[in-house]
Amino acid sequence: MAADAHVLRPDHHPTPFTADEIRLGCRAGRTVRSLVVEGGAEPYVAVTRFVSVDAEGADTDHWTETPDGRRVTEPERHRSTWLEFQGHASMPADSTQISEETMDIPAGHYDCLKYVRRDGDSVSTFWFARSAPGMPLMFERRTSGSLDFSSTAIEDTIA
Q1: In this structure, are residues 53 and 27 in contact, taking their beta carbons and an 8 Å threshold?
Q2: Tell me, what's the pLDDT at 2?
Q3: Residues whose CB is less than 8 angstroms from the CB of residue 92 and which lie 6 or more positions away in sequence, other chains included
Q4: For residue 118, what pLDDT is reported?
C-alpha cells in the first residue's frame, strides 16, 4: 500500500494539501493580503507574493502595508521547498481536531478544512480553503480564551 502524501509524520494528522497540490496552487504572481490584528497593536496588512516557482519550491516576497494600502516595510525574499510549505500544516493528532466549515471572508466564500490545535491554555485555529492550496486564509490564536492574534485574507489573487 502506498504511503499517504498528506501524512508527514505517523503521530500527526494528514495535512490539508500535499506538496504537489501546494505547488499547483501557488503559481508565480499569487498574492495573498491578510488583515492582521495583534493584541493592543494597530491592525496591518501582511502581504505574501509568490515571485518565482520551480519543481522544488518557491521564492516569496513578504511585506506589510497599512489597511489603506500604504507600504510600511520593504519586501523580504524567502525561499521554501514545497515540502516545507506542507510541513507548516502538519499537526499532532493528539492535540488537533479537524472539521469542515464554510466561511465568508473579505477574500471570498470558501469550503474549508478547519484545524483546531490545543497547546496548554493556547488554542490555534486554521482555516484552509480547499480551493486555495497553501497557507490558511484565516488563522487565530487565543490564550485563556482571549484573542491574541488573527489573520484574515482580504485578497487572494494571481497576477
Answers
A1: yes
A2: 57
A3: 11, 12, 13, 117
A4: 97
Query: What is the spatial distance between Cα 122 and Cα 74, in angstroms, rounded to a whole number?
Result: 32
Sorted by where each starts, the structural domains of the chain and their CATH numbers stand as 19-158 (2.40.360.20)
Cell numbers given for 41: 497593536
Cα separation, 69 vs 33, whole angstroms = 10
Helix (H) / strand (E) element for 116: namely strand 108-119
Q: What is the mean pLDDT of residues 48-62?
A: 98
Which residues, including other chains, have CB under 8 Å from residue 68's CB and lie 6 or more apart? none
Looking at the DSSP assignment, which residues form a beta bridge with residue 150?
A: 37, 140
The end-to-end CA distance of the chain, in Å, is 40
pTM over 0.90: yes
Q: 106-158: per-residue pLDDT in tens?
A: 999 999 999 999 999 999 999 999 999 999 999 999 999 999 999 999 999 99
Report how far residue 19's alpha carbon sits from residue 88's, in angstroms, rounded to the nearest whole number.
11
